[in-house]
Hints:
The protein is an alpha/beta fold.
Amino acid sequence: xxxxxxxxxxxxxxxxxxxxxxxxxxxxxxCISQIARAERHHVQTAVEAAWETFRNDxxxxxxxxxxxxxxxxxxxxxxxxxxxxxIREVGKTRxxxxxxxxxxxxxxxxxAEEAKKIHGEMIxxxxxxxxxxxxxxxxxxxxxxxxxxxPFNYPLLLSTHKIAxxxxxxxxxxxxxxxxxxxxxxxxxxxxxxxxxxxxxxxxVTGAGSxxxxxxxxxxRIAMYTFTGSGEVGRHIKARSGMxxxxxxxxxxxxxxxxxxxDVELAARxxxxxxxxxxxQACIAVQRIYVHEDVFPAFSEQYIxxxxxxxxxxxxxxxxDVGPMISEKEAKRTEEWVREAISEGATALLPIRREGALxxxxxxxxxxxxxxxxxxxxxxxxxxxxxxxxLEDAFAQANDSEYGLQAGIFxxxxxxxxxxxxxxxxxxxxxxxVSTYRNDVMPYGGVxxxxxxxxxxxxxxxxxxxxxxxxxxx
Length: 474
């Protein structure tokens, strides 16, 4: 496989740098690409290019709509290429890559529609004495240059969730993709420009987040930052951004509750299917499963039966369900956490097995709340099953977390479902499906240390525009 080199992409031009970083095939370890390592002056140039483009070459809403819609069509036409790229640079299985492509195409379409819907509202100034001759209304205007920092686990979809709404809203961008999975962002921008996006609207700078990210935060001309990643980095961005707004989608530790009246077969099948997709490397992946003691034996048996059917191995094999983690280092860290839990009294229902970056699904019982696999975000194919006898206690355990992105509950009682919706301290509560469910049209974002702001094209457009009040004295 020839290792293609990607330079920085600034103002529609490819910019070489003094050094390059290898991008590896996550299953074979083969070098599949080289990406440029940006220096501070490159970041400054990228922001300047984005700023000048924003000031001088604004697209109309209908033009933005046409470009984004055309991009979705081009993405569909290049499906095989896009999926194979995700399989190699991320380690996704073919099934997971196909799902990411489907969602990316849909997000482009949704963003296209939102470009045509940006509007303000009338304000009844005349209702106040002395303002009878004044007409008031609001308009929404683009913020300017958006600084976007994207994660490794869904590099195409989550780049699209930042770039497409930003463009729909009339902004320009400087994007810093994850160093280990940057190729998807280059392919996305290639598709957008093929669809008619003028050069300079999206600029790509690559390199270590600790360097490039800091230089982006130094740039006062960036009007807003949007970031998906760790809580530690998210807090740092918020502290450094000053008065500029941020949208932060951070970590999570998703609880899923299986009540005694649940459809146990459905719960076992759904949780097993969505516990280990993308090798568990998803913010809303199933991690903690709280199961009522009355159905605990039946659920555990059925859950394990489903998990045993999952095939682990080469992500390019269409039959594979669980591929490699992002690196052998992360797989080793996962194994350490699991073995530490076992040494402290937890029981593994499946053999603990690791082969390089492949970590086979691990299911633990008899865990304690302070174990890392329970109280922290494991971000790996690891699940704990925890019995409960009282629903209030299950809610309390589910809420006993610094995170609050999404949770799930299985129950046939509408009152229980609505109580969960009101009680669980999460940005999203999913009834009779797993916490992993995300439809790209919905508002997606968490509470507590899971972040600030919402994604989903409509909601991202609101985040990436300013409401401006207009008063006319007639």
